[in-house]
User: Fold this.
Amino acid sequence: MALIHPTMKIKPREGKRARAGSPWIFSNEIVMDAEMKALDPGEAVDVVLDDGTPLGTAIFNGKTLIAARLVSSEPGTALDADFFAARLARADAIRARLFPTPFYRVAHAEADGLPGLVVDRYGDVLSVQMGAAGMDVRTDIIVAALRRVFEPRAIVLRNDFQARTLEGLPSLTALAYGEEPGEIAFKENGATFLCDPMTGQKTGWFYDQRENRAFAARFAKNLSVLDVFSHAGGFALAALAAGASEALCIDASEKALGLAGKAASASGFEAKLGLRKADAFEALDDMAAQGVRFGLVIADPPAFAKSRKDIEPAARAYRKLARAAASVVEPGGTLVLGSCSHHIDAARFHAECAAGIHQAKRPARLLRSSGADVDHPVHPHLPETAYLKALVFALD
Ligand code: SAH
Assistant:
Protein backbone atom coordinates (compact mmCIF):
# COMPACT_ATOMS: atom_id res chain seq x y z
CA MET A 1 0.00 0.00 0.00
CA ALA A 2 1.19 3.53 -0.69
CA LEU A 3 2.14 5.81 2.16
CA ILE A 4 -0.81 8.15 2.55
CA HIS A 5 -0.10 9.54 6.01
CA PRO A 6 2.77 11.72 7.23
CA THR A 7 5.86 9.55 7.67
CA MET A 8 7.16 8.84 11.17
CA LYS A 9 10.76 7.64 11.24
CA ILE A 10 12.21 5.39 13.91
CA LYS A 11 15.78 6.26 14.93
CA PRO A 12 18.60 3.90 13.95
CA ARG A 13 18.69 0.80 16.18
CA GLU A 14 15.55 1.93 18.05
CA GLY A 15 12.02 0.50 18.05
CA LYS A 16 13.19 -2.94 19.14
CA ARG A 17 9.90 -3.93 20.70
CA ALA A 18 7.86 -2.62 17.79
CA ARG A 19 10.01 -4.54 15.31
CA ALA A 20 9.40 -7.67 17.40
CA GLY A 21 5.61 -7.20 17.27
CA SER A 22 4.67 -4.71 19.98
CA PRO A 23 2.19 -1.98 18.95
CA TRP A 24 3.91 0.65 21.11
CA ILE A 25 6.59 3.09 19.96
CA PHE A 26 8.00 5.43 22.60
CA SER A 27 8.71 9.13 22.18
CA ASN A 28 12.48 8.66 22.59
CA GLU A 29 12.54 6.13 19.74
CA ILE A 30 11.34 8.42 16.97
CA VAL A 31 12.82 11.23 14.92
CA MET A 32 11.03 14.29 16.31
CA ASP A 33 11.60 16.75 13.50
CA ALA A 34 9.61 19.92 12.85
CA GLU A 35 7.11 18.01 10.72
CA MET A 36 6.37 15.54 13.51
CA LYS A 37 6.11 18.30 16.10
CA ALA A 38 3.51 20.01 13.93
CA LEU A 39 1.18 16.98 13.93
CA ASP A 40 -2.00 17.18 15.97
CA PRO A 41 -2.54 14.58 18.70
CA GLY A 42 -4.26 11.55 17.22
CA GLU A 43 -3.14 11.94 13.61
CA ALA A 44 -2.42 8.78 11.65
CA VAL A 45 1.19 8.24 10.57
CA ASP A 46 3.02 5.73 8.37
CA VAL A 47 5.87 4.28 10.39
CA VAL A 48 9.18 3.44 8.75
CA LEU A 49 12.47 2.16 10.13
CA ASP A 50 15.69 4.12 9.62
CA ASP A 51 16.44 2.15 6.43
CA GLY A 52 13.00 2.93 5.03
CA THR A 53 11.43 -0.47 5.79
CA PRO A 54 7.74 0.15 6.51
CA LEU A 55 6.39 -0.99 9.88
CA GLY A 56 2.74 -0.05 9.52
CA THR A 57 0.13 2.58 10.30
CA ALA A 58 -0.01 4.12 13.75
CA ILE A 59 -1.95 6.73 15.69
CA PHE A 60 0.40 9.44 16.92
CA ASN A 61 0.44 11.69 19.95
CA GLY A 62 3.56 13.82 20.45
CA LYS A 63 2.39 14.83 23.93
CA THR A 64 2.74 11.42 25.55
CA LEU A 65 5.35 8.76 26.29
CA ILE A 66 3.70 6.14 24.09
CA ALA A 67 4.06 8.41 21.08
CA ALA A 68 2.65 6.00 18.52
CA ARG A 69 0.42 2.96 18.67
CA LEU A 70 0.43 0.71 15.63
CA VAL A 71 -3.04 -0.14 14.38
CA SER A 72 -1.99 -2.05 11.28
CA SER A 73 1.13 -3.70 9.90
CA GLU A 74 0.29 -2.14 6.53
CA PRO A 75 1.34 1.46 6.02
CA GLY A 76 -1.32 3.60 4.38
CA THR A 77 -4.23 1.97 6.19
CA ALA A 78 -7.18 4.38 6.12
CA LEU A 79 -8.67 4.72 9.61
CA ASP A 80 -12.24 5.08 8.39
CA ALA A 81 -15.55 3.54 9.44
CA ASP A 82 -14.84 0.43 7.31
CA PHE A 83 -11.60 -0.15 9.21
CA PHE A 84 -13.26 0.20 12.63
CA ALA A 85 -16.29 -1.85 11.62
CA ALA A 86 -14.05 -4.71 10.48
CA ARG A 87 -12.03 -4.69 13.72
CA LEU A 88 -15.17 -4.51 15.86
CA ALA A 89 -16.89 -7.32 13.96
CA ARG A 90 -13.78 -9.50 14.33
CA ALA A 91 -13.66 -8.83 18.07
CA ASP A 92 -17.39 -9.50 18.45
CA ALA A 93 -17.17 -12.80 16.56
CA ILE A 94 -14.78 -14.18 19.21
CA ARG A 95 -17.06 -13.15 22.09
CA ALA A 96 -20.20 -14.40 20.36
CA ARG A 97 -18.67 -17.90 20.36
CA LEU A 98 -17.80 -17.71 24.05
CA PHE A 99 -20.86 -16.14 25.66
CA PRO A 100 -24.54 -17.09 25.32
CA THR A 101 -25.81 -13.50 25.41
CA PRO A 102 -24.29 -10.21 24.20
CA PHE A 103 -23.09 -9.02 27.60
CA TYR A 104 -19.32 -8.76 27.47
CA ARG A 105 -16.33 -6.54 26.71
CA VAL A 106 -16.40 -6.49 22.93
CA ALA A 107 -13.24 -4.46 22.36
CA HIS A 108 -10.25 -4.57 24.67
CA ALA A 109 -7.96 -1.97 23.18
CA GLU A 110 -4.54 -3.05 21.84
CA ALA A 111 -5.39 -6.75 22.22
CA ASP A 112 -8.23 -6.35 19.72
CA GLY A 113 -6.25 -4.19 17.30
CA LEU A 114 -7.96 -1.04 18.57
CA PRO A 115 -5.33 0.76 20.68
CA GLY A 116 -6.86 2.73 23.53
CA LEU A 117 -10.45 1.78 22.65
CA VAL A 118 -12.60 -0.15 25.11
CA VAL A 119 -16.20 -1.10 24.37
CA ASP A 120 -18.42 -2.94 26.83
CA ARG A 121 -21.61 -4.37 25.43
CA TYR A 122 -24.79 -4.51 27.50
CA GLY A 123 -27.10 -6.09 24.95
CA ASP A 124 -28.14 -3.24 22.67
CA VAL A 125 -26.32 -0.59 24.72
CA LEU A 126 -22.63 0.11 24.21
CA SER A 127 -20.39 1.83 26.76
CA VAL A 128 -17.15 3.19 25.31
CA GLN A 129 -13.84 4.43 26.75
CA MET A 130 -11.21 6.18 24.64
CA GLY A 131 -7.77 6.19 26.23
CA ALA A 132 -5.77 7.43 23.22
CA ALA A 133 -6.00 10.70 21.30
CA GLY A 134 -6.05 8.68 18.07
CA MET A 135 -9.38 7.19 19.12
CA ASP A 136 -10.77 10.36 20.68
CA VAL A 137 -10.34 12.44 17.51
CA ARG A 138 -12.16 9.71 15.56
CA THR A 139 -15.17 9.57 17.88
CA ASP A 140 -17.66 10.23 15.05
CA ILE A 141 -16.13 7.55 12.83
CA ILE A 142 -16.09 5.03 15.68
CA VAL A 143 -19.70 5.81 16.61
CA ALA A 144 -20.69 5.29 12.96
CA ALA A 145 -18.86 1.94 12.91
CA LEU A 146 -20.45 0.84 16.19
CA ARG A 147 -23.90 1.69 14.83
CA ARG A 148 -23.23 -0.24 11.65
CA VAL A 149 -21.96 -3.40 13.39
CA PHE A 150 -24.22 -3.55 16.45
CA GLU A 151 -27.32 -1.48 15.59
CA PRO A 152 -27.45 -0.38 19.23
CA ARG A 153 -30.19 1.49 21.03
CA ALA A 154 -27.65 3.73 22.77
CA ILE A 155 -23.92 4.48 22.73
CA VAL A 156 -22.47 6.03 25.88
CA LEU A 157 -19.03 7.65 26.04
CA ARG A 158 -17.46 7.03 29.44
CA ASN A 159 -14.40 9.17 28.87
CA ASP A 160 -14.29 10.15 32.53
CA PHE A 161 -11.17 8.29 33.67
CA GLN A 162 -7.83 9.47 34.95
CA ALA A 163 -5.52 7.90 32.36
CA ARG A 164 -6.90 10.28 29.72
CA THR A 165 -4.86 13.09 31.21
CA LEU A 166 -1.69 11.27 30.02
CA GLU A 167 -2.94 11.82 26.46
CA GLY A 168 -3.96 15.43 27.17
CA LEU A 169 -7.64 14.51 26.85
CA PRO A 170 -10.47 16.00 28.95
CA SER A 171 -12.73 14.02 31.25
CA LEU A 172 -16.30 13.68 30.02
CA THR A 173 -19.40 11.48 30.02
CA ALA A 174 -21.78 11.82 27.10
CA LEU A 175 -24.50 10.09 25.20
CA ALA A 176 -23.08 9.68 21.67
CA TYR A 177 -26.16 8.06 20.16
CA GLY A 178 -29.74 7.13 21.09
CA GLU A 179 -31.58 7.78 24.32
CA GLU A 180 -30.29 7.55 27.88
CA PRO A 181 -30.29 3.82 28.54
CA GLY A 182 -31.05 3.89 32.29
CA GLU A 183 -30.43 0.71 34.31
CA ILE A 184 -29.93 -2.52 32.40
CA ALA A 185 -30.65 -6.01 33.77
CA PHE A 186 -28.63 -9.01 32.67
CA LYS A 187 -27.77 -12.53 33.78
CA GLU A 188 -24.36 -13.61 34.99
CA ASN A 189 -23.39 -16.71 36.96
CA GLY A 190 -27.02 -17.63 37.64
CA ALA A 191 -28.06 -14.27 39.13
CA THR A 192 -29.67 -11.16 37.66
CA PHE A 193 -27.59 -7.98 37.90
CA LEU A 194 -28.25 -4.31 37.27
CA CYS A 195 -25.82 -1.84 35.79
CA ASP A 196 -26.04 1.79 34.79
CA PRO A 197 -23.71 2.62 31.87
CA MET A 198 -24.23 6.41 32.18
CA THR A 199 -23.69 6.88 35.91
CA GLY A 200 -22.13 3.64 37.21
CA GLN A 201 -18.44 3.12 37.87
CA LYS A 202 -16.13 2.83 34.82
CA THR A 203 -18.33 1.56 31.94
CA GLY A 204 -21.04 0.35 34.35
CA TRP A 205 -19.94 -3.20 35.15
CA PHE A 206 -16.74 -5.15 35.77
CA TYR A 207 -16.96 -8.02 33.30
CA ASP A 208 -13.31 -8.91 33.96
CA GLN A 209 -14.15 -10.79 37.18
CA ARG A 210 -16.98 -12.90 35.66
CA GLU A 211 -15.02 -16.17 35.60
CA ASN A 212 -13.39 -15.53 38.99
CA ARG A 213 -16.85 -14.94 40.48
CA ALA A 214 -17.97 -18.30 39.06
CA PHE A 215 -14.92 -20.03 40.54
CA ALA A 216 -15.37 -18.44 43.97
CA ALA A 217 -19.05 -19.47 43.92
CA ARG A 218 -18.00 -23.14 43.75
CA PHE A 219 -16.96 -22.85 47.40
CA ALA A 220 -20.13 -21.11 48.56
CA LYS A 221 -22.74 -23.80 49.15
CA ASN A 222 -24.31 -23.53 52.62
CA LEU A 223 -21.72 -20.98 53.74
CA SER A 224 -21.93 -17.35 54.81
CA VAL A 225 -20.15 -15.07 52.36
CA LEU A 226 -18.47 -11.71 52.80
CA ASP A 227 -17.92 -9.59 49.67
CA VAL A 228 -15.84 -6.52 50.54
CA PHE A 229 -15.39 -3.85 47.89
CA SER A 230 -18.49 -5.53 46.50
CA HIS A 231 -19.51 -2.89 43.97
CA ALA A 232 -22.92 -4.11 42.69
CA GLY A 233 -22.58 -7.60 44.20
CA GLY A 234 -20.91 -9.58 41.40
CA PHE A 235 -19.26 -12.05 43.76
CA ALA A 236 -21.94 -12.10 46.47
CA LEU A 237 -24.86 -12.85 44.17
CA ALA A 238 -22.96 -15.48 42.20
CA ALA A 239 -22.30 -17.14 45.58
CA LEU A 240 -25.98 -16.96 46.57
CA ALA A 241 -26.98 -18.43 43.21
CA ALA A 242 -24.60 -21.29 43.96
CA GLY A 243 -26.26 -22.01 47.30
CA ALA A 244 -24.61 -19.76 49.88
CA SER A 245 -26.77 -19.45 52.99
CA GLU A 246 -26.28 -15.67 53.21
CA ALA A 247 -24.01 -12.93 51.93
CA LEU A 248 -22.93 -9.49 53.06
CA CYS A 249 -21.80 -6.77 50.64
CA ILE A 250 -19.61 -3.97 51.97
CA ASP A 251 -18.81 -0.98 49.79
CA ALA A 252 -18.18 2.73 50.23
CA SER A 253 -20.55 3.59 47.39
CA GLU A 254 -24.24 3.89 48.14
CA LYS A 255 -25.00 3.78 44.43
CA ALA A 256 -23.16 0.46 44.02
CA LEU A 257 -24.93 -1.04 47.03
CA GLY A 258 -28.26 0.17 45.65
CA LEU A 259 -27.62 -1.77 42.45
CA ALA A 260 -26.63 -4.83 44.50
CA GLY A 261 -29.90 -4.56 46.43
CA LYS A 262 -31.95 -4.36 43.24
CA ALA A 263 -30.00 -7.29 41.82
CA ALA A 264 -30.81 -9.32 44.94
CA SER A 265 -34.54 -8.57 44.53
CA ALA A 266 -34.45 -9.40 40.83
CA SER A 267 -32.69 -12.68 41.66
CA GLY A 268 -34.98 -13.62 44.56
CA PHE A 269 -32.24 -13.33 47.20
CA GLU A 270 -33.26 -10.16 49.05
CA ALA A 271 -33.76 -12.09 52.31
CA LYS A 272 -30.24 -13.50 52.12
CA LEU A 273 -28.24 -10.42 51.12
CA GLY A 274 -27.03 -7.80 53.59
CA LEU A 275 -25.73 -4.41 52.44
CA ARG A 276 -23.42 -2.22 54.48
CA LYS A 277 -22.00 1.13 53.49
CA ALA A 278 -18.62 1.34 55.17
CA ASP A 279 -14.90 1.65 54.69
CA ALA A 280 -13.78 -1.90 54.00
CA PHE A 281 -10.67 -1.78 56.18
CA GLU A 282 -12.59 -0.42 59.18
CA ALA A 283 -15.42 -2.93 58.72
CA LEU A 284 -12.98 -5.86 58.51
CA ASP A 285 -11.16 -4.77 61.67
CA ASP A 286 -14.46 -4.35 63.53
CA MET A 287 -15.69 -7.80 62.50
CA ALA A 288 -12.37 -9.40 63.34
CA ALA A 289 -12.49 -7.84 66.81
CA GLN A 290 -16.09 -9.00 67.34
CA GLY A 291 -15.32 -12.55 66.25
CA VAL A 292 -17.54 -12.43 63.16
CA ARG A 293 -16.41 -15.07 60.65
CA PHE A 294 -17.41 -16.19 57.13
CA GLY A 295 -16.90 -19.38 55.16
CA LEU A 296 -16.00 -17.47 51.99
CA VAL A 297 -14.46 -13.99 51.89
CA ILE A 298 -13.80 -11.98 48.74
CA ALA A 299 -11.79 -8.74 48.81
CA ASP A 300 -11.53 -7.16 45.37
CA PRO A 301 -10.60 -3.50 45.89
CA PRO A 302 -10.13 -0.66 43.40
CA ALA A 303 -6.60 -0.14 42.02
CA PHE A 304 -4.41 0.90 44.96
CA ALA A 305 -1.53 1.79 42.59
CA LYS A 306 -2.63 4.32 40.00
CA SER A 307 0.94 5.12 38.93
CA ARG A 308 4.48 3.81 39.41
CA LYS A 309 5.13 6.05 42.38
CA ASP A 310 2.25 4.36 44.24
CA ILE A 311 3.79 0.89 44.05
CA GLU A 312 5.21 0.68 47.59
CA PRO A 313 2.23 2.17 49.48
CA ALA A 314 -0.12 0.08 47.34
CA ALA A 315 1.84 -3.08 48.07
CA ARG A 316 1.53 -2.34 51.80
CA ALA A 317 -2.22 -1.82 51.39
CA TYR A 318 -2.62 -5.20 49.64
CA ARG A 319 -0.71 -6.84 52.48
CA LYS A 320 -2.84 -5.12 55.09
CA LEU A 321 -6.02 -6.09 53.26
CA ALA A 322 -4.92 -9.74 52.97
CA ARG A 323 -4.25 -9.79 56.70
CA ALA A 324 -7.56 -8.16 57.61
CA ALA A 325 -9.59 -10.33 55.25
CA ALA A 326 -7.86 -13.56 56.36
CA SER A 327 -8.76 -12.66 59.94
CA VAL A 328 -12.50 -13.02 59.25
CA VAL A 329 -12.32 -16.36 57.40
CA GLU A 330 -13.64 -19.37 59.32
CA PRO A 331 -11.25 -22.27 59.87
CA GLY A 332 -11.36 -24.32 56.66
CA GLY A 333 -12.78 -21.38 54.71
CA THR A 334 -11.82 -19.76 51.44
CA LEU A 335 -10.28 -16.36 50.75
CA VAL A 336 -10.33 -14.65 47.34
CA LEU A 337 -8.05 -11.62 46.87
CA GLY A 338 -8.12 -9.45 43.78
CA SER A 339 -6.03 -6.62 42.37
CA CYS A 340 -6.66 -4.55 39.27
CA SER A 341 -3.49 -2.44 39.73
CA HIS A 342 -1.59 -2.65 36.48
CA HIS A 343 1.55 -1.40 38.28
CA ILE A 344 1.60 -4.27 40.79
CA ASP A 345 2.66 -7.41 38.93
CA ALA A 346 1.42 -10.90 39.69
CA ALA A 347 4.56 -11.94 41.61
CA ARG A 348 4.42 -8.89 43.86
CA PHE A 349 0.72 -9.28 44.50
CA HIS A 350 1.21 -12.94 45.40
CA ALA A 351 4.05 -12.03 47.79
CA GLU A 352 2.03 -9.34 49.57
CA CYS A 353 -1.04 -11.57 49.93
CA ALA A 354 1.08 -14.43 51.27
CA ALA A 355 2.73 -12.08 53.78
CA GLY A 356 -0.60 -10.67 54.97
CA ILE A 357 -2.16 -14.11 55.43
CA HIS A 358 0.93 -15.18 57.37
CA GLN A 359 0.67 -12.10 59.61
CA ALA A 360 -2.90 -13.17 60.37
CA LYS A 361 -1.37 -16.50 61.49
CA ARG A 362 -3.43 -18.49 59.00
CA PRO A 363 -1.67 -21.39 57.32
CA ALA A 364 -2.95 -21.46 53.74
CA ARG A 365 -2.79 -23.15 50.36
CA LEU A 366 -3.01 -21.28 47.08
CA LEU A 367 -5.67 -23.06 45.05
CA ARG A 368 -5.81 -20.87 42.01
CA SER A 369 -4.13 -17.89 40.45
CA SER A 370 -5.90 -16.25 37.53
CA GLY A 371 -6.46 -13.08 35.59
CA ALA A 372 -9.31 -11.47 33.71
CA ASP A 373 -11.97 -13.39 31.82
CA VAL A 374 -11.51 -14.18 28.12
CA ASP A 375 -13.30 -11.10 26.85
CA HIS A 376 -10.25 -9.17 28.14
CA PRO A 377 -7.54 -10.63 25.90
CA VAL A 378 -3.88 -9.65 26.21
CA HIS A 379 -1.78 -8.47 23.29
CA PRO A 380 0.96 -11.12 23.07
CA HIS A 381 3.66 -8.44 23.00
CA LEU A 382 2.23 -6.39 25.87
CA PRO A 383 2.18 -8.87 28.75
CA GLU A 384 2.34 -5.91 31.16
CA THR A 385 -1.21 -4.92 30.19
CA ALA A 386 -2.58 -8.06 31.93
CA TYR A 387 -3.68 -5.96 34.88
CA LEU A 388 -6.09 -8.22 36.80
CA LYS A 389 -4.93 -10.72 39.39
CA ALA A 390 -7.11 -13.04 41.48
CA LEU A 391 -5.80 -15.49 44.07
CA VAL A 392 -7.88 -18.12 45.85
CA PHE A 393 -6.56 -19.49 49.14
CA ALA A 394 -7.83 -22.29 51.37
CA LEU A 395 -7.21 -21.32 55.00
CA ASP A 396 -6.73 -23.76 57.88
N1 SAH B 1 -15.65 -6.72 43.38
C1 SAH B 1 -16.40 -5.87 42.48
C2 SAH B 1 -15.58 -4.77 41.88
C3 SAH B 1 -14.96 -3.86 42.90
S1 SAH B 1 -14.52 -2.29 42.29
C4 SAH B 1 -17.06 -6.70 41.40
O1 SAH B 1 -16.84 -7.91 41.32
O2 SAH B 1 -17.77 -6.12 40.58
C5 SAH B 1 -14.02 -1.52 43.77
C6 SAH B 1 -15.16 -1.11 44.68
O3 SAH B 1 -14.56 -0.64 45.89
C7 SAH B 1 -16.02 0.02 44.18
O4 SAH B 1 -17.36 -0.39 44.16
C8 SAH B 1 -15.81 1.18 45.18
O5 SAH B 1 -17.01 1.89 45.46
C9 SAH B 1 -15.36 0.42 46.41
N2 SAH B 1 -14.51 1.14 47.35
C10 SAH B 1 -13.49 1.99 47.11
N3 SAH B 1 -12.89 2.35 48.25
C11 SAH B 1 -13.52 1.71 49.26
C12 SAH B 1 -13.34 1.64 50.66
N4 SAH B 1 -12.37 2.31 51.28
N5 SAH B 1 -14.16 0.84 51.36
C13 SAH B 1 -15.15 0.13 50.77
N6 SAH B 1 -15.36 0.16 49.44
C14 SAH B 1 -14.56 0.93 48.69
